[in-house]
Every structure is written in structure tokens, then in C-alpha cells.
Design goal:
By secondary structure, the chain is α+β, with helices and mostly antiparallel strands. The chain contains 8 helices and 14 strands. The longest helix has 20 residues. The site of ligand DP6 has 13 residues, from α4.
């Protein structure tokens, strides 16, 4: 039995569109921050007595239909490792309830790590990044800690992530504003597909990302948080412009999302350098220098309950260990 722990990540330069749906080759590069507070631990054991994969998340056994995406991923691992046994998978998401951050990124990164090791494959981090990609695009980046870049590549071999700065030596920090929604959401998978197929702005998005990647990497080298934040905020808005401009158009924002965006801009007017980013849901994440943490929290507390605000520093890359011997495998 093998266990892997992988942290989730939030993109500062977004991945929003695939070139190859099967292999999950993205249209553009992307760049993210791995978060310390949110992670998934997953145990996998291949068991010859099983007649189907058994998948539990947070101690709840999934139906075969709900476990389908996990099983398809395990098929890939079995095929590569030359194994035929079904697997028992136990996964725990260490994410505050309703944070909207229980992402497929940490889940598939942890599954890739635990399943490949349990199947006897000894993958290095680049190989793991490529494998995790097949489960969910954003999982590609969760193999590494800190600031991480996903090279879009052009095939299975060339599309993987790499750290830009694995251990942050400056105070970039993120705060998640938890905004709940009852509305059934459009998955990122469906949403990005609609944007690629129907948004007239999609070609411009590719150029936007190419420029933003260059600029943000230069700003990271300068440890320039206001520039990093500004680029990330503009990039998020332009990604969301691809949802509004799809046919039919849609949006992940709700009124609370707009309130949060306004609140961040109001704080900035008061001289607090903070910036927002949003993914395929209504929650807003704010980035700033950790020295400004208390001022950011105090400012946002005028609009949101303190319990809705969750702070996270940068987090580490994947860890994999043998459950019996506790031997660290990666
Ligand atoms: C908005 O990685 O969830 O969070 O590859 O289809 O599983 P699939 O999509 P997913 O998309 C993430 C989209 C995003 C931006 C990002 O993380 O880069």
C-alpha cells in the first residue's frame, strides 16, 4: 500500500482550453502557486481478490459511475505497469468544507503518485507530472511546490510542469474568500471546451498568455508582488471574458464574486497592494505580500465574515511513501 500527499494549486496564468482532449494537451502554457493549506492524501493498493476498483473519498465509497474517472486513470496506470489487478483507493481531501477548493489538481496528482508507486513504477517528478496530466490538466502542476510552470508541449512527452521557484524566498501569500453557491456549476472541462469552440476571442487569449507568461516570470525573478498580482488579475479577467464571449455565454461569477473584486480594488485605493484571481467557480483568491496580511484581512472583513477568509502560504510538492515501512519513495 502506497500513500501520496499532493497540494492543490491556483493558477496565476490560467489554463483554459485543450488542444487534445484525450491526452489533455493544453492550448497554452500556464503558471500556478501550490498552496500549503489545501491538500489530498491518497492510498492505493492493487488487490488480486477485487473484482472492481473500490474508491472512497473522505470515507464515502463512490458508486462505480462516480468512480469512473478514477478507474479510467487506474486503467492507464495498469496498462503502463503491465498489471491487471483492481485497486482499493482511499482519498482524503484536506480542504475546509465548502471552500470550493477541493480541486481535481491535488486529487489527480496524489492518485498519480500513489497508484504508480503501488503498481511498482518508479517515476521521477517529470514523469509523474505527465501522468497526473492525464487525470486533470491542473494536476500536472501539483507535483511541484511553490511557483510552477506547465509547458503546454505538443504531445504526451513534451507537456509537463516544472518549478519556476520551488521554495519561495519572498512573501507571496494567498487568501481564499469562500463564497458559497447553490447553483449547479459548469465544470471547467465543459467550460473551457465551449470557450475554445465558440469564443471569437480565443485566438487573442493565446497571445495574452504568451505575453503574460514572459512578464510574470520576469516579475517573479524580481520578487515584485504588485507586478505579479497585476498580471494575474488581468489574466483572470481575460480568461473569464472567454466565458462571457462563448455561445451560449455564461459566467462563474455571482454577486458575491463581484463584491469581492470591488473590495480588493477598494483596498488597493487605500494603498494595500492586493490582487484577485478566480477559477471555474464564484470563489475569489487574493494575493498580496504576507506583511500586509492583517490589513488585507481587516479590509475584507468589512465585506465578508472572518470565517470565510482562509490564508495559505506557498506549499510543497508531492510526497510519496510506503504505508507499511514508511519509507519515503519521493
Ligand atoms: C480555471 O484542470 O480542472 O482552474 O483538465 O479538464 O480536468 P481538466 O480541467 P481543470 O481546469 C482548471 C481550470 C482553471 C485554471 C487553471 O487551473 O489553470
Amino acid at each position: 500500500m502506497t500513500t501520496a500527499k499532493a497540494h492543490t494549486n491556483i493558477a496565476l496564468i490560467k489554463y483554459w482550453g485543450k488542444k487534445d482532449q484525450q491526452l489533455i494537451i493544453p492550448q497554452t502554457d500556464s503558471l500556478s502557486l501550490t498552496l500549503n493549506e489545501f491538500y489530498t492524501t491518497t492510498q492505493v493498493v492493487f488487490d488480486p481478490t477485487l473484482t472492481t476498483d473500490q474508491v472512497s473519498i473522505n470515507h464515502h465509497r463512490l458508486t462505480p459511475a462516480a468512480a469512473q474517472r478514477t478507474s479510467a486513470f487506474l486503467d492507464l496506470v495498469r496498462q503502463r505497469a503491465g498489471r491487471t489487478e483492481f485497486a482499493r483507493v482511499n482519498s482524503i481531501n484536506h480542504v475546509p468544507t465548502a471552500a470550493g477548493l477541493a480541486s481535481s489538481a491535488s486529487a489527480f496528482a496524489a492518485l498519480a503518485g500513489a497508484a504508480s508507486a503501488a503498481a511498482g513504477m518508479q517515476l521521477n517528478r517529470r514523469e509523474l507530472s505527465r501522468l497526473a496530466r492525464r487525470g486533470s490538466g491542473s494536476a500536472t502542476r501539483s507535483i511541484y511546490g511553490g511557483l510552477v510552470e506547465w509547458h503546454r508541449g505538443h504531445d504526451d512527452h513534451s507537456s509537463y510542469a516544472e518549478p519556476v521557484m520551488e521554495k519561495l524566498d519572498f512573501g507571496l501569500e494567498m487568501l481564499a474568500i469562500m463564497i458559497n453557491t447553490k447553483k449547479k456549476k459548469i465544470t471547467s472541462r465543459q467550460g473551457m471546451q465551449a470557450s475554445v469552440a465558440t469564443s471569437p476571442y480565443y485566438a487573442s487569449w493565446r497571445q495574452v498568455v504568451a505575453n503574460d507568461m514572459q512578464a510574470i516570470k520576469a516579475a517573479i525573478q524580481q520578487r515584485d508582488i504588485p507586478t505579479i498580482g497585476h498580471i494575474a488579475e488581468e489574466n483572470a479577467l481575460r480568461m473569464h471574458a472567454l466565458t462571457l464571449s462563448a455561445d451560449p455565454g455564461y459566467s462563474y461569477f455571482n454577486s458575491q464574486t463581484l463584491t469581492a473584486m470591488r473590495a480588493v480594488r477598494a483596498l488597493r485605493k487605500r494603498g494595500i497592494k492586493c490582487y484577485y484571481t478566480m477559477d471555474a467557480g464564484p470563489n475569489v483568491k487574493v494575493i498580496y505580500d504576507h506583511r500586509d496580511r492583517e490589513r488585507v484581512i481587516a479590509g475584507l472583513s468589512q465585506y465578508f465574515d472572518r470565517s470565510q477568509l482562509i490564508v495559505s502560504a506557498a506549499g510543497p510538492g508531492i510526497q510519496i511513501w510506503d504505508e507499511k515501512t514508511k519509507k519515503v519513495l519521493l
